[in-house]
Structure formats: structure tokens, C-alpha cells
Amino acid sequence: RMETDYNPMELQNNTGFEEDSDYRDFEGTDVKDMRLEAEAVVNDVLFAVSNMFVSKTLPCAEDVAYINVETRERNRYCLELTEAGLRVVAYDFDQTDDRLQTPYHETVYSLLDSLSPAYREVFGNAILQRLEALKKESQS
Q1: InterPro entries, from UniProt (predicted)?
Q2: Where are the domains of the chain?
Q3: pLDDT-derived band of residue 3, with 50, 70 and 90 as boundaries?
């Protein structure tokens, strides 16, 4: 049985969990903080966009975070990050538009690839440079 640093009884009142205590233990240890996930997304691709940061205005929670991104083409977007992936929720920083029905992308790479030809070029060049560096390393 896995050791945990909390009392499994704390989860007793959460609706939607199975009554089986092993299942509750697993759920309690598997919570992802979307703000941390969002920070990681930003750090991963910041070099290939003009500006990108986690929204300080829109609420972050365990299951959702919002990321503002400005592409190299100077287009602004607000992205929603959930377990389902990333999607555009507005065409400006710190906004959400419930009427927008944009598709989810599994990765930030595919989302930005669909929004920004300049991102695609910068990211592709970065990959090529890394490959060249690896090739030189392996030849020495």
C-alpha cells in the first residue's frame, strides 16, 4: 500500500470519487496544479514567440490555467490549459469568450504551429541547430 502524507479521510466528502479507499488514495496523490503546468509550457516555447506568460488576472485552479501569448506576427491570444489540452479562448490577453469554439491541441507546439508561421520557422531552426550541435558532438 502506497504511503501518503495526508489523511485519506479528508477526501471522504468529495463527490465523484469511488468509495474504494485505494482509489481515493490514488486520486489524492495525482492532483496536477495547472499553474505549474502552465509555467512549464511558457518556459518551453518562450524563445519562439514575442511574449508569453501565465495570466495573473484570470483564475488558475487545479484543473485550469490561462496563458497569454503574443506571436511574432504580433497577434495576441489567451489560451486555456486543462487536462484536455490547450485551446484559444480569446483574441487578446486576459480574456475569455464563451462563444469561441476552438479545438483543443494536445501540445503547445501543435497549437502555436497552427497559429504562427513565424513560430514554426523559429522552432524548426532551433531543432536544426540542436541537431547540428549533436552531430558535431558525436563526430569529435
Answers
A1: GSKIP, GSKIP_dom, GSKIP_dom_sf
A2: 34-138
A3: very low
- SS (HEC) of the chain: CCCCCCCHHHHCCCCCCCCCHHHHHHHHHCCCCHHHHHHHHHHHHHHHCCEEEECCCCCCCCCCEEEEEECCCCCEEEEEEECCEEEEEECCCCCCCCCCCCCCECCHHHHHHHHCHHHHHHHHHHHHHHHHHHHHHHHC
Residues 6+ apart with CB under 8 A from 14: 27
- Give 44's pLDDT tier (boundaries 50, 70, 90): very high
pTM attached to this predicted model: 0.73
Q: Does domain 34-138 have CATH number 3.60.20.30?
A: no
- Is residue 108 within 8 A of residue 87, CB to CB? The reply is no
Cell of 90: 480569446
Torsion of CA 55, 58, 63, 69, to 10 degrees: -30
Tell how far CA 133 is from the center of its chain.
Answer: 28
Q: The dihedral of CA 109, 72, 91, 80: what is its sign?
A: positive
